Amino acid sequence: MKLDHVNIVVRDMEASVRFYEQFLGLRRGFERMLEGEWLERVTGLPCARAHCIFMETDEEGARLELLQYLSPDSPAGANREFNSAPNARGIRHLAFTVSGPEAMALLVVRLRAADVPVVSDPVEVPFQVGSLGRKQLLYFLDPDGTLVEAAAYG
To answer: How confident is the model at residue 85, as a pLDDT?
Structure first.
């Protein structure tokens, strides 16, 4: 079995697409309006309707699925602060690789210039990560507060 995709429910589809294109180099792929009995059945949401865009990389593999629900609205208890916390239960972050420390440094500059919330400067993990070697990582938030990691190995 292999990973097919990871899903993020977003508030503003175009803002999220721009974010993942601009900062992580993903490109817009499959796009469709999702609606009908099949969607209501699989989600358990009556009258479910959502705009779906898959964001892809140049390499074949897992994709990022962005969904903006047009109906029903997100639950009133949806809390960006809670969902952005690194220790909150559930799926916590997405991780993308960058080509090395120089690319990581450039990413930090671009994120900060765009006022994207960055958790800290890049941090070096104090041990080898298997055959990948040393790892440098950075956490930052997407437009909906989803925690994103950039990782450089070597």
So the answer is: 78
